[in-house]
Amino acid sequence: MTTSVILAGGGSGGHLSPGLAVAERLQSLSPETPVHFACSDRPIDRLMLEFAGAAFTPISSAPFSIRPVGLVRFLRGLARGTRESADVLRSHHAGVVLALGGFVSAPVVRAARSLGTPAFLLNLDVVPGRANQWVARRAQRVYTALPLGAGQDLPNLAGQVDFPIRRAAIAPADPATCRERLGLVPEKPTLLVTGASQGASSLNRLMMRFVAVSPGALEGWQVLHLSGPADRSALEDAYRTAGIDSVVLEFIDQMGLAWGAAELAVSRAGANSVAEVALNRVPAIFAPYPWHKDLHQEHNARPLVEAGSARLERDLVDPDENLSTIGRGLRELLLDPAARNRMRDASGALQSSDGASQVAELLLSALARRG
């Protein structure tokens, strides 16, 4: 009987992309080992996993909340999700589970514990969230892909690995070739605006306002904007009205093309985005997700900011207010090629080795011990 690896996580590209990187390396190292994702029921999970050709099963789950209604929803999702997860683990003869963080990992790890299946956690943030804290107490081993922040700790911490990055997130060619493959002008410098896998409404609204009041800052530039589904048409209209060449996409699976095309990027600061920026050596302005109370995405970006390869700006949500923060920094860098060159020179890869292969080897060792 062939045992499989179950990768548990989802709800955002930041959880799924590292898992897809690990799945790629597992396929390379051990083609005969089946890999199956236990993901959330959010549309982004289905979109990303189907694009990647990965096998998956959505699991009922809900984020943890201390509010009464939210807590009831979480507990119901945990109970139902645990039953569904146990069915997945049995039907796929799970030999080991890797939790990738996020709320959907909780019922899967709970089911693994009840069945006696080893479960590991891969922590992907400098400041672990509630779900990771919960899962860490129930996992056999915990690995972190980023150094934990000051005062942060995780139970059962066994060590640190490098950040797993998909091959599809690495620039496959020179900038001109990447631009041409995306329908952009090959010779034209390109600003990449990305709100990660689901887009960022506040960044979308900022860019609509920015091109309305400062179109001259983008003279000679073109824009590749990854918008998510809601604002695509409005953004296309705004760029067209301002006379700025653009390609606006709701989603892109081959993120390496986008990084390879970019002369400059405006991006959220999820750990996965930060790692991809560093690896592809793209000068970037990070605008962390503004609705986290602790603004923990700021911690992900700090190493690049301190190295001089990125800038950090507060997303104030209101587009006019953001003109004075993100917009001001963007205008400065668009008009200053020497500053961009210094940022690129200061940039180094976030890791020295292949984190996805490190994790894949840990999982295969666990399978071998069980075999």
What topology does this entry show?
Elements: E1 4-8, H1 13-29, E2 35-39, H2 43-52, E3 56-58, H3 68-91, E4 94-99, H4 105-115, E5 119-123, H5 130-136, E6 141-144, E7 157-160, H6 175-181, E8 190-194, H7 201-213, E9 222-226, H8 232-242, E10 245-249, H9 255-261, E11 264-267, H10 271-280, E12 284-286, H11 297-307, E13 310-312, H12 319-323, H13 326-334, H14 337-346, H15 355-370
Parallel strand pairs: 1-2, 1-4, 2-3, 4-5, 5-6, 6-7, 8-9, 8-11, 9-10, 11-12, 12-13
Describe this entry's structure for a reader.
- With 371 residues, the chain is of the alpha/beta class.
- The mean pLDDT is 92.
- The protein is globular, with a radius of gyration of 21 Å.
- The chain is built from 15 helices and 13 strands.
- It has helices spanning 13-29, 43-52, 68-91, 105-115, 130-136, 175-181, 201-213, 232-242, 255-261, 271-280, 297-307, 319-323, 326-334, 337-346, 355-370; strands at 4-8, 35-39, 56-58, 94-99, 119-123, 141-144, 157-160, 190-194, 222-226, 245-249, 264-267, 284-286, 310-312.
- The strands form 2 sheets. The chain has a 7-stranded parallel sheet, sandwiched between helices. The chain has a 6-stranded parallel sheet with strand order 10-9-8-11-12-13, with helices on both faces.
